[in-house]
Amino acid sequence: MTNNSAVSLRQRALNYLARREHSRQELGRKLKPFVEEGDDLVALLDDFQKRGWVSDQRFSEMVVHAKAGRYSKRKLAHELREKGVAEDLVTQATGALDDLQSAKTVWQKKFGTLPETREAWAKQARFLQSRGFGFDVIKQVLKQSFEDNENQ
């Protein structure tokens, strides 16, 4: 095993990329604490991008593919923006997502039955909200709310 202090910036970047995709900004942020005198982080990132080893488009597609069924379009877009992905790539990656279908899938897996009390409705709504779904989508998923059940 090599000594961590002897690992070059380039090798450290390759190690990160061998584990998973990274956005350019995310990789730069991870490498920044290890930059030593004589290292050119921007040139390294430019080289990796030119070679196709770092791709914000590929990164955004990977994130959306991995998390699309569990989180809202809005939450995924926010995560991509946080990682430095350009707005056009965020729109392209999340454009085909259907929040209502994702919310129904997540809800079905977690709960499966409609809430029978206000407390249960609130618990299910909070869960969906924590996954980034808006209240309009949550109301559609939990369409037979506690009040509807009371009136039947």
Can you count the beta strands?
Answer: 0
As a percent range, the share of strand residues is under 5%
Low-confidence stretches: 145-149
> With helices defined by DSSP (H or I, 4 residues minimum), what is the helix count?
10
Annotated CATH architecture of the largest domain: Orthogonal Bundle
Shape category: elongated
Could you report the average pLDDT, rounded to the nearest whole number? Answer: 88
CATH-defined topology of the largest domain: Arc Repressor Mutant, subunit A
Determine the structural class based on helices, strands and strand pairing.
mainly alpha
Kindly provide the radius of gyration, computed on alpha-carbon positions and rounded to a whole number of angstroms: 21 Å
CATH superfamily (homologous) name of the largest domain: Winged helix-like DNA-binding domain superfamily/Winged helix DNA-binding domain
Largest beta-sheet details: none
Termini gap: 68 Å
User: What is the subunit arrangement here?
Assistant: single chain
CATH class of the largest domain: Mainly Alpha
Helix content: 55-70%
Total count of domains: 3
Along the chain, the helix and strand elements come as HHHHHHHHHH
